[in-house]
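agent> Task received from the user: take the single chain below, predict its 3D structure, and emit structure tokens. No templates, no multimer pairing.
agent> Plan: (1) validate residues, (2) run structure prediction, (3) serialize to tokens, (4) report one or two observations.
agent> Step 1 OK, no nonstandard residues flagged.
tool_call: predict_structure(input=
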Amino acid sequence: MNTAQNFDTAVLIGRFQPFHTGHAALLAQALDTAPHVVVILGSAHQARNAKNPFTWEERAAMIRATLDEEQQARIDFVPVRDCYDDRRWKEAVQQAVAQKTVSRRIALIGFVKDASSQYLNRFAEWQLVATGQHGEVHATHLRRIYFETDDPAASQALLGELVPASVAHYLKGWTHLPHYARLREEHLAIEESRKIWGNGPFITVDAVVEASGHVLLIQRGRAPGLGSWALPGGFLDGRERVLQGAIRELREETGLALLDSTLEGALKNVAVFDHPDRSLRGRTVTHAHHFDLGSTRLPEVAGADDAATARWVAIADLPGMEDRFFEDHFHILDHFLSLTID
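)
tool_result: status=success, residues=342
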């Protein structure tokens, strides 16, 4: 271990979907830099999707399997959710590290690859230990091999050169779980959509409808996000204003039988959500509309169009459903309803 710079803790941030040889080199650098390492597992607590197929617990297990007992004892794995808000995400990472160390002698391990690496510049209080690129390995390419190769043996042969041996075994076993078939179908559907419609930017509209301590949700009836809970919404039509589009999508997907004038009168707030990584379908900017119907009898609803189900859900139940929401819809709800996020 190199302690020349006298760091107490090294921090490594990533999604590790999946953990590959480039990640392994960064982790080795972290272990060589400080006696204690904090690995931040990003995109935690999300519903599984083709970009984030593995839970944070599965990723931690995947990484542990590549280490010996002494190395494992020196590492803390900490999950951090995607807040889609740079300031809030930075604070969450800082808080997570502060819970694991009281030291101020902290090194941040990273490789500056492209615009996606800009997060490394946000932690001025930590010293960046920049590393070189370790081969041409990208998790995006690995997921393509994993989900697109029809021959399992060929897939494993390709992945075996790009991930540690224990991870290759893990990925092989994971193909036999129910999640794999569903996520493979989702990945292929997204790729087909990109061929037809491109990568955006797209404009969408969403509706947060609140009434008597409940919010109106749908359960998606098709990929991407089949079975996930979501806000009623969809793509903006060519001649619509965003409010008109939000009301149209709300009515189409839930059958909410309220007049446009009633909904317009209940409009409480509008916010734009434009994080580049918020949607798997490409660069998608949504205009979310918060309608508050007040203390009233919950109107009848029924799922239609893209929605398999429409349901009024108690706002108090939403935090416990975080890992079942489509894309960033939980965070949109949190923005308007101030849900408790630990």
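agent> Step 4: summary for the user.
The chain has two domains: 9-178, 202-337.
agent> Done.
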